[in-house]
Amino acid sequence: MRAADERFWAKVIKGPAPGDCWFWVGAISDDGYGRFTLNKNGTTRAVRPHRFAYYLATGVWLDDMPSLMHGCDEPTCVHATVDPSSHLMPGTHRENMLDRIKKMRHSNGTGLRYWGVGRAAQADRSRRIREELLAHGWDSERIVAIRFNHDPDTPTLF
Ligand SMILES: [Zn+2]
């Protein structure tokens, strides 16, 4: 698995602060989640990067892993650790859904719009974050602009 995790981390850009997201900048699927290909014993398998990151952090293999929730609501975030700073935590599918509903209900309109948009928009958003990171590296303002749907090239009016 050595080569796989080197390949994996080569496609991740981490924010500078301990609580920042670690964004996957490799392939992104049409649902807005990342895609990472594992080659094992001559077979290939496409996996979710956040699940692979969780495996690297915890040692829990993909087939034995529960569904994971993104505390940060970033589908391409792979910030998995074994302590409470982890952006990924296990949850059942039902918990996942309830969590989404709860967040939408409490959303103040500045964030978490992600869950209200369609698949194509989710994929587009994930890809824009990736392009931004690849073009400019980690620039918090620009990332926040995309995350919260502000246009970074439009000046604010105050
Ligand atoms: Zn995150």
Automatic annotation (TrEMBL):
Top-level lineage group: Bacteria
InterPro entries xrefs: His-Me_finger_sf
SUPFAM superfamilies per UniProt: His-Me finger endonucleases
Protein name: HNH endonuclease
Species for this entry: Paeniglutamicibacter antarcticus
